[in-house]
Amino acid sequence: MEPRGICKINRQVFRALLCGAYRMAIQTSGLVIDIIAFSTRLLEEQEVSPRGRVTLRVIADLLPGIAANLYLLTAVEDGQAWVPQATLGEAPVHVSSVPAAQGALGVIAAEPEPVLFAGQQLTREEYSHLNVRRTVKSLSYLPLIAKDGLIGAIEILTFDAELSADVLHSLVPLSRISASALAAARAYEEERHNSLTSISRLAQLYDLEKVFGSTLEMDQLVPIIASKFREVLECQGVNVWLLQPDESLLLMHQAGLDATVSPSALQRPGQGLAGDVSDNGESVLIASGTDERLVQRNAGVEQGAIFSMMVVPLLDAGQLVGVVEAINKMDGTPFDDDDLFALTSLNETAVGALHNASLLIAERKVEVLEALVKTSSEITSTLDLDRVLQAVVNGPASVVPYERAAIALDQRGRTQLRAVSGNLEFDPEEPSIRALNQILQWASLLTEPELVAQHGEEVSAEREETRAKFQHYFAQTGMRAFYAVPLADEEGRVGVLSFESSDPDFLSVAHLEMLKVLSSQATVALRNASLYKEVPFIGVLQPLFQKKRQFLALEKHRRVILVAGAGVALLFFVLFPLPLRVDGPAVVAPVRSAHVGAEIEGVVKQVSVREGDSVREGTVLGSLEDWEYRSALAGAEAKRQTAITLMDRALAANDGMEAGIQQTQADYWTTEVARARERLDRMQLRSPIDGVVATPHIENMVGHKLKFGDVFADVVDNSQATVDMDVDQDDIALVAPGQKARVKLDGFPARTFEGQVAVVSPVGRIESDTRIFYARVTVANRDGVLRAGMQGRGKVSTGWHPAGQVFFRRPAMWIWSKLWDWFGW
Question: What's the pTM?
Fold first, then answer.
């Protein structure tokens, strides 16, 4: 229904006015419109609102005292609506949009021609979208028509007098030019918005890759993935399901709100959307809450029901890793294909991070198995109780992040602390050892493994007495977790094994499984070693009794001869001195070596040395492509010279201000020249030490690209070599720094190299069943014949000692240690 008082403009007049829009100036009904000036002002702006304000300002200049609004037709959910873009005067629009067919604006939407309404015949409802406090004399509209059709309208209100049809006609060319400008501005804004959206999406993907690559810990990575997905998709919740070994899906993390599933839920194919997607590998987009699948999932949920959902599989090289669910967009609209594409792209980014995290988990499992096999072989390859104890408390340290492990054995009805990790010997009266011993007395009563941890002030223990005991113990020792494993078999209790750490969560599931297996093997090994320890006493005495009976059965003169011979031998062994030497395998190691690397990324241009060349400190070994840095240096020098020249001219012209400015420029470019020269100098790869080039085929490095930190060449200084000689733990007490040593190498069988012991290692290593230390011998290498890696044998002279000590030192030490084990004085 048309509003009352409408005056339609004749179509022929409308066309004629449009044809005149291209004149430089139009004068109609007393109005002079400078089209060129108007077009120029429009071109100075690029966006819709500024161009709309220019249009309204020009109309207001032509028609003083009016109020005007400019609208654009915009697509909305229900169809189209008039969206205000610019306002001028005392009739602002108090709503964000006006339906296309509502009120007076609906007339021009139905038929895009200029219209004029008489104010006395208008009702307030026809322009209810305006906040008008004055009496409206007339209300008129100019359509904004571009090549795509009607795009908007200009609304003009007069308050002092009615607007004539002739005046409205004269504004038609202005509206046509404004329509073209506004259409172009809207296209520009849409293109800019799309570009910004693309850039934003790329930035988000880059940010996601950086965030996902910041950790390889699966328990940290999955929450990051869920939270970032929810942030990018702007949705209510994100569920991350990961595939389990039994082909089921486990809900690993839930970001946001989803009341339809519970944390740590399990799904199989046919039990839910995630399970179905894991079975067929096809993405699912549900845009309506009436979908049967969502109705079934929302059953029993009163608040937080799902009205839109996306389910996308996580595929790694075609293999299913898991499933991601996105729940309800925050703006209340359903998900669309663009959202599904975005989630699929995000999944591709997350799969790489999950793959790397799974590789880390697999590597850790291999490390755990290797450590378990190594420790098991150590404790089962010997019956020495002390070695078994040390292997059990120290072996798992390579994969289990504990800070202290200890074993207490049940001996003669008492629990006695026998081994502490990192200590071959310990003082039972030391406060920390005494506190540990008391806790192990408590742990010896356990029948099952128990983990006690403290998070904050809370101690995880069932009994109040236990909580109080460990709160005091943790405060005393600084530990925050204590894990005790009873060692028992069919014959009874052997002892208890414990692990401690200042991290309350230091044990993972893999660690607990490893310690469970280790405790079983340790129980068997400790039982066998304990039984074997009791047997040698009888095994030693019985042969002695047999020899005594054989000696007494001999004739008297033969007994006298044997006794005399034994006495002479005894005197020889006690009084006759012999040199005592300690020998062992020896390996030559370089005293000093250096890696020559690239300080700046570049391509190797030239190599100046070959393998085996002797070089001095600072010798150029090679160079990188430096044309870019030479150009930068030349440019900086040219700008510096220009600034100096301008400064001299300013001084000559007595222009102090200009001279000061140019002096500042000269100082700046002087600094830049120095920096450019420094960067250019870094392109030269120099030797940091005197030595010999040790990199094979170094000449083939020409053309190779070196990144920052990549090694270009190795330089070894062999002027003085060191020889690491293995020393058995039984001989380590004889070796000391300053003793003379001799080395014979396999490569020089007829030559002996003399040197001096420089260092005796404070820590040993285990090889086979023997603990080995090393003595580092310095040997002069002036002719450079000693090269790193040469093998041979070394001997250290420890001085003159009685013959008995030289010949029987090792058996005597073994017997002495056994007697000490048996009697324990």
Answer: 0.39
